[in-house]
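Standup, Tuesday
Yesterday: got the pipeline producing structure tokens again.
Today: sanity-check two examples.
Blockers: none.

Example 1:
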Amino acid sequence: MKRKGFTLIELLIVVAIIGILAAIAVPNFLNAQIRAKISRCVSDMKTLETALEMYRMDNNAYPTCNAARVAGSGDYFHPNEIRFYRMTTPVAYISSVPRDPFTSERAADWAKWGWAYDYVNNDYEGSNHTGGWGHLWRINSWGPDQVNGWGGQRDGHCINGKPDFLYQTSNGLVSKGDIVWVGPKDPQTTNYCEIINGV
């Protein structure tokens, strides 16, 4: 009686075809995930920009980003120091503090801030603080490289040993740099750089 079944060659061909299809599909799937996270960042930052401007209209100032001023405790990791916390209560300019989809689990301290977007305003170190690039405030996401470059600031190389960089999709989908969103120009600055919001 003759047995019916696949030969070893036929099985190897099928395995090779599956491998080729996987090699094509997996990178496309991963790229789609990264694009979705970038879109979410841009959407979150637009929402935060609107909330920041509403907060400023009501309070004649942007929310502080200095721990001692925000929490009144001097504890840099106080729960109230979660970025944008002051915009959720007592008046809800945002319903909750959005999480940066690119924050890295490697940075355990960031968990204490709820993995939120980084936020700096000119209250932090004055009008010429390089992290704001001469704008009244700056928000940044870690970006696809999952390294916080502190908003691509000019003195970033002093903090993280890397040159200045802002994320741009034209440099490749998974390239170095932070996704940065800035507010209006600080009229008192002498340290201004034009930044175009978005990627």
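Example 2:
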Amino acid sequence: MKTVMPRWRLILSRTLRQAWVRAALYCVGGVLAALVAWRFQFHVEENFALSVGADAVGNVLSILASSMLTVTTFSLTVLVNALGAASSGVTPRATILWSEDRRAHDALATFLGAFLFSVVGIVALSTRLYGPGGRLVMLGATVVVIGLIVVTLLRWMQQLTRFGRVGETIRLVEQAAAQALRCRRDQPHLGGIPPDPAHRHARPVLADRIGYIQHVDLAVLTRALGGRDAMLDVAVLPGAFVHAATPLAFVDPEMEAAALAAVRRAFLIADDRAWEQDPRFGLSVLAEIGSKALPPTAADYGTAIAVIGAGLRVLSEWIPDPDRPPREPEHPRIRVPALSTDDLIADFFHPLAREGGGIVQVGVRLQKGLAALRSMSPECFSAAAMRASILVTEHAGFALLVPSEKAAVEALTLR
């Protein structure tokens, strides 16, 4: 079972998902491969090197350098166009997932690394750094690089057929939302304990900037408490919008200024919401994708129905596993509220009910989806699903004009 990610791991994970990191590593590898050929040239017999035509490596490297620069530029253009298409045609909130796609990063990094490998090799050949043995080693390395390029190109071609598509975007959002909700199901209080309203401290720690809570580091909060016998109440969860009058936490009135500053540092506040600790964000993005497919100008009911299926799969991750024993809290002095099932249901179903109220196919599918959730886990979803089902019926009753269509949606209302 995974633990809640501390701040340093979150920052490291986000950094490693950036395109430039992988590209930089591949570039360093390409440069080192070209330089290693100089080191190993002394282990190759000169006559053998001349007999296999090692002098041809210069021409091969020249072709490789020119072609890789073109392919890299083309791939960057495709990536930028795909991000633009995903932003305008699906939702801007999903573009971060495309920009962090590992397959795209691998392709760009391979092409750029091969380009630098070729350039360094050409420079080394021009300065006569390589003897016959070095040219032979360089030729062998070039063959390996070409093989890597061929494999990457084939994978990249397959990826281009799906890149930026609505269906693939839904899949990426579903994966991110399901992962976040699964982690929250396993640790509903982020590694802390449930709140105790009767014993909550009265001194609030206010936010020092305006934005969204992206991450709460309970390890930092525990260290801020120090050795004294005290508790700390977290007031906001990841995804909450905060401002200068919003309490982040409630603490012991006797806490020192340095400890108060440490409490504020435990809350990562940014301009946008993030995926890692905020499963409601993923459900909201899925609902946004489905909502954009429902206006009469779009009339893409199939996409909305696909989104409903994806949302059901995500919400099913919230069902407790009876075979999994409860986990001991890692931070027993930190009280953290849990997510509300009503909020999860509302984030996903309410926008779709509003936008799809006048479409009987969508209304019926929403009612069946809510019924499926209640059937899978009545104790978890029953009350929230019934309230959402009534809302779907109300929207359909207001928007649908054909009595038989209204009756079809109303007949599926959960009671």
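Quick observation on example 2: Residues 169 and 191 are 31 Å apart (CA to CA). The mean pLDDT is 86.
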